[in-house]
């Protein structure tokens, strides 16, 4: 048993070392090319159809990458269900691994959210797993490398033919003004504001719905806190503090309302900035030190995991804050 | 001004603007430093609470880091959009 284990580990270790050394030499021979950097996702199809108000629809490479992420998640889900086992056989492989992950996540959610854990947990786990898969899949070699080739507006690189109909670009300046660049089929989903903003909007709308479920209409007294303003009129004697407090409460309510919108913005731009910044960092590092540029990939893995964790944790915190009771005086009045 | 010179000047000022936008990371760096120091002291005083402190620290660092990332987004928009 022990001997077998050592043998297997040894083989894998040499394979990793071999791949690393090969990587250094191959990137030294074929230096990575700085891609065309663009913030919105590039369209990879012509306009598919046009809607009256919303405008033209086309498939972008970030959307295609999101679909790939969905496929991977579905595949993992099926693998987990298949290896779940029944009364006779214990769960194997995938099911065990995911039981550990989901169990650890559920413990975190339960320690924060308490009795609302069952409601909040699916949202946290879904956004966390989706973002984690999206951030890690963009390390794959097919991302940002394979795609349609087209003539660049400015700059661009020399193109050579690999086989019939398939060309590749080399790191040489275009000689007669006909440079080419690549629109990749896949680009990391989180580098598109559409992906992150959609997730952020979904999360914040969910938080409001959870708040209404927990407190009923009373939830909105957080934003429109006129409660203490009206109770001021019913008082017989007013101190100076009793007059100032209602106005402060109204102002705090306005701030709360603004902070909900700020949450959407901060959610979406945090994820976008971290991942898009990482993509550009990689492009810059490859031109500076092409030999060891794969090292930055480990940073990308770490940043991707941390951003996914942060998105999930913030979802958890906001949802929990919305469900726990706020402002005792409003509560006292309702009853 | 000669339009060619103006175009060169604008493209140069873009890089300057992006660099100035990244000054915003100064605050985030300070904030993360303070957070890390606080978490270290907390763990040193109470090593049993290391797990909980770590998770909360990462969460708080993400908040502080968000400011730096906004600066980065502004710099990237200056450089690559429009």
Task: Note the topology.
The complex is a heterodimer of chains A (335) and B (82).
Chain A: H1 2-29, E1 49-51, E2 55-57, H2 61-82, H3 93-113, H4 117-137, E3 147-151, E4 157-163, E5 166-173, E6 180-184, H5 193-215, H6 227-234, H7 240-288, H8 295-323, H9 328-334
Antiparallel strand pairs in A: 1-2, 3-6, 4-5
Helix pairs in contact in A: 2-3, 2-4, 3-4, 4-8, 5-7, 5-8, 6-7, 7-8
Chain B: H1 3-21, H2 25-45, H3 50-80
Helix pairs in contact in B: 1-3, 2-3
Write a concise keyword list for the protein shown above.
heterodimer, A: mainly alpha, two-stranded antiparallel sheet, 6 strands, disordered C terminus, B: 82 residues, mainly alpha, 87% helix, rod-shaped
Account of the 3D structure:
The complex is a heterodimer of chains A (335) and B (82). Chain A is mostly helical. Helix content of chain A is 62%, strand content 9%. In chain A, the strands form three sheets. Chain A has a two-stranded antiparallel ribbon with strand order 1-2. Chain B is mostly helical and 82 residues long. In chain B, α2 (25-45) packs antiparallel against α3 (50-80). The chains are: A mainly alpha (335), B mainly alpha (82). The A-B interface holds A 37-39, 108, 266, 269-270, 272-274, 276-277, 280, 306-307, 309-310, 313-314, 317 and B 55, 58-59, 62, 65-66, 69-70, 72-73, 76-77, 80-81.
């Amino acid at each position: 048993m022990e001997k077998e284990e050592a043998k297997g580990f040894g083989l894998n270790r040499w394979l990793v070392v071999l791949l690393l050394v090969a990587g250094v030499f191959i990137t030294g021979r074929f230096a990575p090319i700085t891609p065309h950097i663009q913030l919105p996702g590039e369209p990879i199809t012509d306009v598919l159809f046009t809607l009256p108000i919303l405008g033209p629809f086309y498939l972008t490479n970030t959307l295609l990458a999101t679909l790939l992420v969905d496929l991977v998640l579905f595949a993992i889900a099926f693998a987990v269900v298949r290896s779940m086992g029944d009364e006779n056989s214990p769960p194997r492989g995938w099911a065990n691994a995911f039981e550990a992950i989901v169990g650890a996540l559920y413990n975190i959610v339960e320690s924060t959210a308490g009795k609302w854990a069952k409601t909040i947990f699916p949202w946290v786990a879904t956004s966390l797993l989706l973002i984690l898969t999206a951030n890690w899949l963009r390390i794959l070699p097919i991302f940002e490398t394979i795609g349609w080739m087209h003539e660049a507006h400015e700059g661009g690189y020399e193109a050579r033919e690999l086989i019939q109909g398939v060309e590749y670009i080399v790191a040489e300046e275009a000689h007669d003004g006909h440079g080419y660049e690549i629109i990749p089929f896949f680009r990391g989903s989180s580098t598109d504001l559409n992906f992150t903003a959609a997730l952020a909007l979904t999360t914040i709308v969910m938080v409001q719905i959870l708040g209404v479920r927990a407190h009923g209409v009373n939830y909105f007294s957080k934003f429109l806190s006129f409660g203490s303003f009206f109770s001021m009129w019913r008082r017989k004697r007013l101190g100076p503090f009793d007059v100032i407090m209602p106005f402060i409460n109204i102002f705090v309510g306005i701030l709360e309302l603004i902070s909900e919108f700020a949450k959407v913005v901060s959610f979406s731009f945090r994820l976008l900035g971290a991942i898009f910044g990482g993509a550009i960092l990689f492009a810059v590092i490859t031109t500076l030190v092409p030999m060891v540029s794969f090292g930055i990939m480990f940073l990308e893995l770490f940043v991707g995991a941390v951003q996914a964790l942060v998105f999930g944790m913030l979802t958890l915190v906001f949802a929990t804050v919305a469900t726990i009771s706020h402002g005792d005086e409003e509560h006292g009045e309702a009853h | 001004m000669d339009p060619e010179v103006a175009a060169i000047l604008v493209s140069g000022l873009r890089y300057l603007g992006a660099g100035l936008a990244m000054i915003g990371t100064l605050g985030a760096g300070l904030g993360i430093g303070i957070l890390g120091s606080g978490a270290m002291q907390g763990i040193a005083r109470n090593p049993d609470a290391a797990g909980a402190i770590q998770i909360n620290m990462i969460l708080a660092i993400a908040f502080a880091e968000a400011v730096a990332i906004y600066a980065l987004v502004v710099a990237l928009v200056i450089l690559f959009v429009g």
